[in-house]
Design brief:
- The structure is a homodimer of 292-residue chains.
- The first copy, chain A, is α/β, with parallel strands linked by helices and 292 residues long.
- Helix content of chain A is 30%, strand content 27%.
- The first copy, chain A, folds into two domains: 154 residues, Rossmann fold; 124 residues, Rossmann fold.
- In chain A, the strands form four sheets. Chain A has a six-stranded parallel β-sheet, sandwiched between helices. In chain A, strands 10-9-13-14-15-16 form a six-stranded parallel β-sheet, sandwiched between helices. Chain A has a two-stranded antiparallel ribbon with strand order 3-4.
- In chain A, a hairpin with a 3-residue loop joins strand 11 and strand 12.
- In chain A, helix 1 packs across helix 8 and helix 4 packs across helix 5.
- The radius of gyration of chain A is 20 Å and the shape is globular.
- At the A-B interface, strand 4, helix 2 and helix 3 of A face strand 4, helix 2 and helix 3 of B.
Chain lengths: 292, 292
């Protein structure tokens, strides 16, 4: 017997996941107290059940204590196992000390989740220096790939695309999508200075002026890199690009920034609830769930 | 060799603590990223040192990940021990399931801190159903009492006081202060419905109309209880009271609410930085630190 709970802002995806399975729908309340403390209240029986919690981990600091309270409490109530479904997994970027004295938060956060959950399922985690989830997660970690869903969306919606990766980190991922749709691709180089300032070098792209540029990235956060890239592509004479992000984090005014940069359209997967969600991952997530 | 770090808003108390000891002052940066993640950066060597972190735990959800990152990182860098000095300790009030399905957050939070720190020092934690810190903390927990510092302040500043405890939970504590200053005291009864709505029953207080009422509580948060009490006392013909809180949490508009309720003065200990801080705890904290 399995039961799925979801934290606020994850209800739409939860509904879709439930439509594909026999899982029971769990009910939960989140309580935020005026003094900055919080609590959860689990309204469905979990005894002798496999419990799943759907909670995307954008803004993870706001959710960490609630995750802890949830996991411990369903165990108190006799859950057989607790699986975290975090379509977007936070704290994957600080995978080394960029400056002396910093915490390697990707590792510490992984230990925190591993200590409290029995299994984690996520979509395209930002693996860079860590080559796999098992380097930092001690619990089984299931990775769902968004590539096929993105491929399907591009084939259905865009004719004559050229895929563009915003930096070297996206190379392998963008080339995989490009090969599946038999489209050309370009990977740009990014020079980052500080959290926010980003320069982009755009190679010779004139030969793709007849194509529809499709910018692909795993995370769109402040969107500065992508917005700069859009401007460079436009200056190089390309058509207004389609921007696709797996994870629509959109920190600060990132969404406004990108919308005003000269894009044709912004599209994201539904790992984080956002009005740009066009690419549904629920089927892919359920396949992985049922596989194990 | 010992070194003291402090999180933002704890610098004033840190400065006072340092003035009483030979402890080294540690330097740390806190970084909050636009996407809701955070990190710390430790700028002082901690290898082979006993590390102390001063961080009052009002608004604990905002600080929990930073505490985790700090504790793990100083251990990475070879700290001999990590002691958390949390003059105000959050999550002490949910010490049972008030409703079915809730997390007992006091216990879970205690385990979280116990897993990451070697020792904790706090001031008058809100112990109610838990009779001692050791019921929920598995690490050594040192409790500093504010009573003596409050006694000294009342003796120095108020003539002919009558002490008033706002509810039964404060009974033992208010009676202790009252006995030390040889003043009379009254303990009221509180009827709470929900987070915010509070009714107060005020017994016959007319006989103290010549006294200066001193309302004492451990935590002043939304201040609704205390503000209601002030109004009741005023209606009963008492002088405008002095309100003393150990911990000036002042959630939401609590401070404004209390100021406008008809008080003479609001005074707090410096466990949480606030403009009402008049009663210094640093000497008491240092005594406990040096004792161990």
């Amino acid at each position: 017997m399995s039961i799925l709970f979801s934290f606020p802002n994850n209800d739409v995806l939860a509904f879709q996941l439930l439509s594909y399975t026999e899982m029971e729908q769990g009910s939960i309340n989140i309580h935020r107290f005026p003094d900055g403390e919080s609590n959860i209240q689990i309204n469905s029986p979990v005894n002798e059940k496999h419990v799943f919690l759907l909670c995307s981990l954008d803004h993870p600091d706001d959710k960490a204590m609630l995750l802890l309270f949830f996991a411990q409490t369903v165990k108190d109530y006799g859950a057989l196992s607790v699986t975290l479904i975090a379509p977007y997994l936070g704290y994957m970027r600080q995978d080394k000390r960029f400056h002396e004295g910093e915490a390697i938060t990707s590792n510490i956060f992984a230990t925190f989740l591993s200590d409290n959950f029995d299994r984690i399922i996520t979509v395209d985690p930002h693996l860079h220096r860590h080559k796999s989830m098992s380097e930092i997660y001690t619990i089984p970690a299931v990775v769902v790939h968004a590539a096929d869903a993105i491929v399907d969306w591009i084939i259905d919606n865009i004719s004559n695309p050229v895929l563009i990766g915003p930096d070297e980190e996206s190379d392998q991922w963008v080339s995989e999508v490009a090969q599946k749709i038999r489209a050309p691709y370009i990977v740009l180089t990014k020079v980052r200075s500080g959290d926010k300032k980003v320069d982009v070098s755009v190679p010779d792209v004139e030969k793709y002026n007849g194509h529809t540029p499709v910018l692909l990235d795993d995370i769109i956060s402040t969107a500065r890199t992508m917005a700069e890239t859009v401007k460079h592509l436009r200056r190089a004479g390309m058509k207004p690009p389609i921007c696709i992000g797996v994870h629509a984090v959109f920190a600060e005014d990132g969404y406004e920034t990108l919308r005003k940069s000269g894009v044709e359209k912004i599209v994201s997967c539904n790992s984080i609830l956002h009005e740009t969600n066009k690419i549904d991952l629920s089927k892919k997530i359920i396949e992985q769930l049922l596989d194990r």
